[in-house]
Amino acid sequence: MSTATDLTVVDVEHVDKRFTLRHSHSLKEWAMWTVRGRKGELAETFLALDDVSMQIRRGESVGLLGFNGSGKSTMLKLLSGVMLPDSGTIGIRGRIAGLIEVGAGFHPDLTGRENVYLNGSILGMSEKEIDAKFDQIVAFSEIEKFIDTEVKFYSSGMFLRLAFAVAAHSEPDIFLIDEILAVGDEPFQRKCIERVQELRAQGQTLVVVTHDLDMVQRVCQRGVVLNKGHKEFDGDIVGAVAHLRGER
Q1: What is the distance between the alpha carbons of residues 108 and 220, in angstroms, rounded to a whole number?
Q2: Residues 101-124: what's their mean pLDDT?
Q3: Domains annotated on the chain, with CATH
Q4: Which residues have CB under 8 Å from 129's CB, separation 6+?
Q5: DSSP 8-state secondary structure symbol assigned to residue 181
Q6: What count of other Cβ atoms lies within 10 Å of the Cβ of residue 216?
Q7: CA distances from 96 to 47, 69, 88, 123, 171 (A)
């Protein structure tokens, strides 16, 4: 039975997510598969998340931790609505802003200015809200000289700066971040971390995926460790990091 309360903004119940892995096969294998009436599978499946449940309360800052292939990025994509679970349920209460891929939601043929309005509207901001925060967003991104340049000419670092600036000023109820702070120079990374800490101090809910265990301890209070699709640990962030390091 769910332990969710009125303060729960993320409610994950018995979630499975499976992917189909397609491999290259020889002509002989394909021929035999066809002769047999296409019986059996030439592709195998991979269970990225296996019966995972967790609840996140309003104002919590949670780090999703685990080695490559543990399922943490898959979970973040399910929370954002980019993907749907194969079984189980995910309940979200509030507005989500997700930084899951650099430049996601940006249109390459539009300028930075136009993409601020496009991305801001995708994140639920009204035109009036974007107007009021436009100068703050551009100043934070530090790409004022290029704001009227088409983003297809931006470097990945410029994409990052503008994407983070828009999302971080959209006042989300739930802020999802996936390794995006690993891109860009160190001064901007520090600036992003400071902004994330400000959001946490303002009571916004954070869900962070990162391999930077020192950084996650600075911005998160709680850690959930995933291992090969299973939830293995759920507790304070110091304990979660210690648990993960103990596996090495």
Answers
A1: 33
A2: 84
A3: 58-246 (3.40.50.300)
A4: 120
A5: G
A6: 23
A7: 26, 24, 20, 7, 9
